[in-house]
Amino acid sequence: MTMPFEQIRAVLLDLDGVMYRGNVLCHGAAQFVTFLRERHIRPFFLSNNSRAGADAVADKLTRLGVPTGADDVVTAAELLVRYMSRVKRKTSAAVVGSDWLANELGSQGWQVRDSRAEYLVVGLDHQFTYAKLKAGVEMLLAGARLLAANRDPVNPIEGTLEAGCGSIVAAFQAASGVRGLCIGKPSLRMLREAQRRLRLEADQLLIVGDSLVSDMALARRGGTHSTLLLSGQTTRATIDRLPAGRRPDLVLEDLAELKELWQESLA
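^ that's the sequence the OP posted. Answer follows.
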């Protein structure tokens, strides 16, 4: 499929598996961002990161050689905190996730506790245990609301994939029967926030990601252009099995190939 590069005014980039894996930049990532900026096309980062806000992500990108400001980043974690900040009656919340997430909710007036809470808020938790699963299921069966930062089953890291936030969410759902609300991609909340900041229409945006269930699903729902990269969690064999209506506009190896294709369109 031909990509109308001349229409695109901003590229919404995923991070894990697109810009970097762990602490290593993906092939062509820095050069692609430079290419966009030289042409006055805005690189903007949409991350399902459930552990930190925009500052931490911007700092990491800058440290890895891609200078970035917090205004160019939206994370699922910060959108989850914003969602909770708008709840009129702030009572109690149990957090399965990072200290950052728990601290931010506490600063918004929530009583953060380990049990008997009215909300169970789930992000990526590298110290997840059976005891946490048991306590969370008990809360859900008692009527607690389930809020998930994202449903990503895995995260691409250096050399492999790690279990993602979605795997933890799936455990709570399977045990309790409670579906819950997802705040991050593929929810349109993240896309609408990007559009609000960028002041652009959907057909002026290109979403680039490595996940069919979050990045590409968001592109379909939001009506943007889409490019799936094979530098993260999705394989070519998976793409080949998809029906035509669910395939992204482009499927490429990495950002280096996308830059090359874009350059060719300018010739």
